[in-house]
Amino acid sequence: MPDILEEKDWGILLKRIKEGNCTPFLGTGACCQIIPFGSQIANEWAKKYDYPMGDSDNLSWVAKFVAVTEEDDMFPREEICTKIKELIEEVTPKYFKTCGELHGVLADLPLPVYITTNYDDLMVRALKSRGKTPVKEICRWNKRLKQRKPALLDFVPTPERPLVYHLHGCYEVPDSLVLTEDDYLEFLVTISVEEDRLPPRIEEAFTGTSLLLLGYRITDWDFRVLFRLLYRYLEGSFSRKHISVQLVPGNVSETQKREFQKYLDRYFADLHIQVYWHDCHNFAAELKNRWEAFNRGT
Questions:
Q1: How far is 7 from 292, CA to CA, in rounded Å?
Q2: Is there a contact between 260 and 228 (Cβ–Cβ < 8 Å)?
Q3: Domain residues of the chain, as ranges?
Q4: 268 CB contacts (<8 Å, ≥6 apart)?
Q5: Which of 51, 91, 190, 291 has its CA 20 to 30 A from that of 283?
């Protein structure tokens, strides 16, 4: 069961980071020290709104139930956004200097593009704490968002002025959230049919860099939808090594974990994505140490 990267994988990763040819993708495990997992929020809502089915940890389904129950599609979105705003209000620049804090470690890297499926703006805040000037943009996946003026018409991201792209929305724009199961399906259909919904610079990141997927769980909707999107772009591109640092499934035996690994290896085989079980905190700490050592040696 691989839970660490091999030396050759680190070598390739660090070289591509140095060249700016690596794109981090941040999942829920990247911010779990501040923002609860979607399953935790789902369970809270399931109790509060008397969710009648057994999958009370599935946020996309519970959120849809809440929207129908309250007869208001925006209600669960606004609730999520309010909760995130409250939780990150006390996050100071000092937080991003704590040992193993993933956003801070990533912010120290010379990368032009960061992509997140999380609703928070922690990556933007981390970059600002390093004296950088990030530009934040959200995916225009629905008709309401398409009417908003895009920020990326002539923007060329650099390590000093990087792009942070919110693929599934940001808490500051409630109607940008890809939250319910219906939202995820609409997102996939829209991105597949309307080629102009993703900026060219994001498409270039998909096809022209090594991807570093951080803090995802294969059972979560955000990851499953992201995988389908990546499959579309990576299938026909030149093969590069990509890395997915997956969260360890909870409450499973070592035998089950091995079966999970076999499944993931087959799942990712065509896309050249290597999968490792790792905690984001530990991975960030090792990445920081190896990056500093790599720079001293070059």
A1: 15
A2: no
A3: 7-296
A4: 244, 274, 275
A5: 91
